[in-house]
Amino acid sequence: MDKAPTYQELQDRIEDLKRESEAHRQACIMQEKILENILPVCVTGRNYEILFTNNSYDSIFGKPKEGMKCFESRKGSACHTENCPLARVLRGTGEYACESLKVGNPGEEDRSFIVIAKPLLDAEGKPAGVIESFQDITDRKRVEREREHLIEELRKSMEKVKLLSGYLPICASCKKIRDDKGYWTQVEAYIRSHSEVEFSHGICPECMHKLYPELAEKE
Q1: Interval 170-175 mean pLDDT
Q2: Measured CA distances, 166 to 163, 169, 180 (Å)
Q3: CA-CA to 192 of 20 to 30 Å: which in 15, 74, 86, 150?
């Protein structure tokens, strides 16, 4: 017959259970704090019903109502397509990453996210849903669009700029320039066709005295 535990042994066991319970409670609190301070997380079942979201998710997409579907909570570019993370995971893709555009409400900016999806496994190790995390890259995409716009504007500007370089065959007498096709053209015409320069004509003092001496004297 087994010996009954003494009162002190019972007290010690109770204290051990209390310590284990407190350690478990602290571990749960720590896990909860870690979960709430990471990226937005959403757990979705096979039928597209949201099972769990953390505070980070709720602050961006709003806390989903009971029984709400994922595509109702956050309408996105991959919804109802073969690239839906849940559909990919249920087909056996395993971990799946994609970039997704989440359509905002009227008057709100659409937001871009990198979505990391991992299978939610049941007791038998089969996919029962998906665990998704969302990294907001809206600001980065905006900067990229602005940069691409500036690059395009620069490209268009560069297409308009024509540079003169190398040797120009020029007549020593009339000062016409020979182009690459062998034709002789006026300096103004040649430079105008190879640059953005426009000419306004005048007359220098030396030519004034040579061509119009009577006007030069008056001046």
Answers
A1: 83
A2: 10, 10, 12
A3: 150
The residue behind tokens 């961006």 is 60
Give me 82's structure tokens: 């073969």
Evaluate whether 185 touches 168 at the Cβ level (below 8 Å): no
Question: d(Cα 35, Cα 57) in Å, to the nearest integer?
Answer: 11
Distance of CA 90 to the CA centre of its chain: 28
User: Alpha-carbon distance 50 to 43, whole Å?
Assistant: 6
What CATH architecture applies to the domain 38-142?
A: 2-Layer Sandwich (3.30)
What dihedral angle (degrees, nearest 10) is formed by the CA atoms of 206, 210, 216, 217?
A: 120
Residues of the chain with CATH 3.30.450.20: 38-142
How far apart, in whole angstroms, are the C-alpha atoms of residue 138 and residue 171? Answer: 61
Pair of tokens at residue 36: 């709430």
Question: Residue 168 is encoded by which pair of tokens?
Answer: 């120009």
Round to the nearest angstrom and report the end-to-end CA distance of the chain: 138
The pLDDT tens digits for 61-113 are 889 999 999 999 988 888 888 889 998 888 888 889 888 888 766 777 788 88
